[in-house]
């Protein structure tokens, strides 16, 4: 199977998995006392990844297809395009991961785990649909994984508390959209955040006064839709943008985002 244009498939070095395995059999799927192999699918953002591990913590395969060239072309991640790339790349990545693991087929698995969130909805849907279909076809357990909880498990933290969440966009998505809005020159496959950061070094962060998101709230939630709208209105009013104005806009936008982070830190205290 071919990979879509602009995608690059890599294999990560194999190592022991530090995640804690927890069985969560779903109704309608077979139950096994001690699963031997688990396949994981990750499509929450712009990397298509599939790995096979065993319950002794050994990583048997770990194959990743990146979208760096596609992201560079669009100055960040476009969810619909990223989802389309996942749909094209997941079959060959899945095939490569199974082959590298030494398993003969999906039927050799005890369970299929897939990222169910947080992430970009169109991208998550590709992985979820594929995992569920394979689990039903091959009669193996289907497990949905919150990948932030997975980070906690990897660190072996016994418990955690969710302090805040985005009410709309993630900060990375906001940076990507602003980079596209300003038509920043995408060099070396940089994401929107890196482009804005680089451009901001040449600008005056006090040149434009953007609203500080969630300034008057004392919780840890965050929101960036209003800040993006403020940037859009500023660009529309300015009309023609030279490099100096773009630098000032980037620096001022970055300051507003940083102020939002400072407010969240104060709320945590």
TrEMBL record:
It catalyses: L-threonylcarbamoyladenylate + adenosine(37) in tRNA = N(6)-L-threonylcarbamoyladenosine(37) in tRNA + AMP + H(+). It holds the Pfam family TsaD. GO terms for biological process: tRNA processing. GO terms for cellular component: mitochondrion. Signal peptide: none annotated. Residues 58-158 form the Gcp-like domain. PANTHER family: TRNA N6-ADENOSINE THREONYLCARBAMOYLTRANSFERASE (PTHR11735), TRNA N6-ADENOSINE THREONYLCARBAMOYLTRANSFERASE, MITOCHONDRIAL (PTHR11735:SF6). This is N(6)-L-threonylcarbamoyladenine synthase. It comes from Pythium insidiosum (Pythiosis disease agent).
């Amino acid at each position: 199977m071919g990979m879509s244009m602009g995608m690059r498939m890599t294999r990560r070095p194999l190592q022991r998995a530090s995640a804690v395995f927890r069985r969560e059999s779903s109704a309608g799927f077979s139950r096994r006392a001690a699963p031997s192999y688990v396949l994981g699918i990750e499509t929450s953002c712009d990397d298509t990844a599939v790995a096979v591990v065993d319950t002794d913590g050994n990583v048997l395969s770990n194959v990743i297809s990146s979208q760096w060239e596609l992201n560079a072309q669009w100055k960040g991640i476009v969810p619909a395009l990223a989802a389309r790339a996942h749909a094209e790349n997941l079959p060959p990545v899945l095939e490569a991961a199974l082959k590298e693991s030494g398993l003969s087929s999906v039927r050799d698995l005890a369970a299929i785990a897939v990222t169910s969130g947080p992430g970009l909805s169109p991208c998550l849907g590709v992985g979820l649909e594929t995992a569920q279909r394979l689990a039903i076809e091959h009669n193996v357990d289907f497990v949905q994984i919150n990948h932030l909880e997975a980070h906690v498990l990897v660190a072996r933290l016994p418990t955690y508390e969710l302090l805040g969440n985005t009410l709309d966009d993630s900060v990375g998505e906001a940076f990507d959209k602003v980079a596209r809005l300003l038509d920043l020159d995408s060099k070396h496959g940089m994401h929107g955040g890196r482009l804005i950061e680089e451009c901001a070094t040449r600008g005056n962060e006090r040149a434009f006064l953007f609203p500080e998101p969630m300034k008057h709230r004392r919780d840890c939630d965050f929101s960036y839709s209003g800040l993006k709208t403020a940037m859009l209105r500023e660009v529309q009013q300015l009309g023609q943008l030279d490099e100096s104005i773009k630098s000032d806009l980037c620096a001022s936008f970055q300051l507003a985002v940083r102020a939002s982070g400072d407010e969240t830190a104060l709320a945590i205290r």
